[in-house]
Design goal:
The protein is mainly α. The protein has 14 helices and two strands, in the order ααααααααααααααββ. Helix 6 runs antiparallel to helix 13.
């Protein structure tokens, strides 16, 4: 009996490890962006990052892409436009603030999404969740002001904007009927392809071309770019696809929820971010509040109930690929969108 329990525990740990690694690489993504992008090259970097991913993802997604209807292509394309806005806000925010701040502030999307869902479904969220949301706001105030009266920096505000748009994106994806039953892999490719096309169109107007930026990169910057493309995007996507079938959505959600903690670890230990005592308290409050909010978030309305009353919200789907268990984590259909 004990041997059986030991083997079960070991197997569970092995299943958890890849998901935890996703949280770790996502936490490092803000530092990686700072290593490969500046305000003038941020858009070109995004073209390179997703230009490396699309062919690889497309080869796997090709059979499903051929089956997409016109409505699914249009729905995925529209969501891709919104996704491009999220990546632009996150990336510009990351290069204008610290990696620690960016990683902690973006985690507010975990709290903002259930709040938005409650508004749209006209249901009051639990008091515990509202308390968690208030605690998160206090934490961000202490974090960005470093315990003083300093207003948030431009980067802080851009990342906060990204968290707001990300939450709206999750809710919008849940309400776009054309993509509710679309193959997750194909829909993700369409959205990333549209977002990359937006970046390619904008890049010449805001800085050097992607090719010029690629030629300027040294070995270290290429290593960071490949880290963003292959680990933070491709690896994370396929691990989540596997994980939601190999383990419970709650467990995956809990492990991915450690991302802001890893962002702080990388920001402090590698980027050398310095935080005052109150800012450290603020960062800790954000981590605690987002996890508390994740656990106490109101349960999403199920699809059958939505069909009976179309004004209500169905289970939240993020980046065309996830139905979240509590509108914040990973659910039955697939993975969350990667950060920056």
């Amino acid at each position: 009996m004990r041997a059986s329990l030991s083997m079960s525990s070991s197997s569970s740990a092995l299943r958890d490890l890849p998901v935890l690694l996703v949280a770790v690489v996502w936490g490092s993504s803000f530092l990686a962006v700072q290593r490969v992008a500046e305000p003038g090259t941020a858009v070109a970097m995004l073209v390179l990052r997703f230009g490396l991913v699309l062919p690889l993802l497309g080869m796997v997604a090709w059979p499903a892409l051929r089956r997409l209807s016109r409505a699914e292509w249009l729905g995925g394309g529209a969501l891709g436009l919104v996704l491009s806005g999220i990546f632009l806000l996150e990336t510009y925010g990351a290069v204008h603030t610290s990696a620690t701040n960016a990683g902690l502030i973006i985690s507010l999307a975990m709290v903002l999404t259930p709040l938005g869902e409650s508004v749209l479904s006209r249901t009051a969220p639990p008091r515990a969740f509202l308390a968690a949301a208030a605690l998160a706001v206090l934490g961000v105030a202490l974090l960005t002001g470093d315990g003083g009266l300093r207003p948030p920096s431009l980067g802080d505000l851009l990342v906060l904007g990204a968290a707001l748009v990300r939450s709206a994106f999750v809710l919008a994806t849940a309400r776009v009927r054309a993509v509710r039953e679309t193959d997750m892999l194909a829909l993700t490719w369409v959205q990333l392809a549209v977002a990359t096309a937006v970046f390619a169109a904008v890049a010449p107007a805001v800085g050097p071309s992607p090719w010029a930026v690629a030629r300027s990169y040294g070995p270290g910057q290429w290593a960071w770019l490949l880290h963003l493309s292959l680990l933070c995007t491709l690896f994370a996507f396929f691990v989540q696809m596997w994980a939601v079938r190999a383990t419970s959505p709650s467990r995956v959600s809990l492990l991915l929820g450690t991302e802001p903690l890893w962002a702080a670890v990388f920001g402090i230990t590698i980027a050398g971010n310095r935080m005052g005592p109150l800012a450290l308290v603020g960062g800790a409050l954000v981590v605690v509040a987002t996890e508390w909010g994740r656990r106490t978030a109101p349960a999403p309305v199920r699809r059958g109930e939505t069909e009976a009353a179309e004004s209500e919200i169905v289970e939240s789907e993020a980046a065309g690929s996830v139905v979240a268990e509590s509108a914040t984590g990973v659910g039955e259909r697939g993975p969350e969108p990667a950060p920056v």
